[in-house]
Amino acid sequence: MLVSRESAKRGLNVVALEPFKHEIILNEVYDTFGDSNASKKFVKHFKKLPTGAIVVIGVKDDASKKLSGDAKAVIAALGSSEIENLGFRQGFAFIGVKGQKKYLEKRGEAVGTGAILSYATVERKRETRSRVEGGSSIEVVSAGK
Fold first, then answer.
1. pLDDT (tens digit per residue) in 51-67
2. Is residue 5 part of a domain?
3. Is residue 4 included in any domain, yes or no?
4. Number of structural domains the chain divides into
């Protein structure tokens, strides 16, 4: 189950999807307001994600107080230009891809962003083409406090 509005907790609510089938490979909350080790845990988990993983981040309440420089650098490496400016109890919604600097991002009072993702398979057979059905629709909303 993905983090929902009802199950979201204080801090960074992070979901990562496998790049081809969009299966959940990470679904964690990092309380970077109250837990001094949360940023370190986030960085450790992020490093284990495969290149191409889709990373979705939404803030609930506050995530800025104990958000380390290393954790900010990880999010900035995904393409975030707003993570350095994240303020106390400010909303932050982000969708990015590990290894690419393509992203959707919003910061402010109440923010949201979304994406529709699809996937395809590559076949090396000469005269064969196949169509892959499916994909994912992702929405992330953050209102800070």
1. 999 999 999 999 999 99
2. no
3. no
4. 1
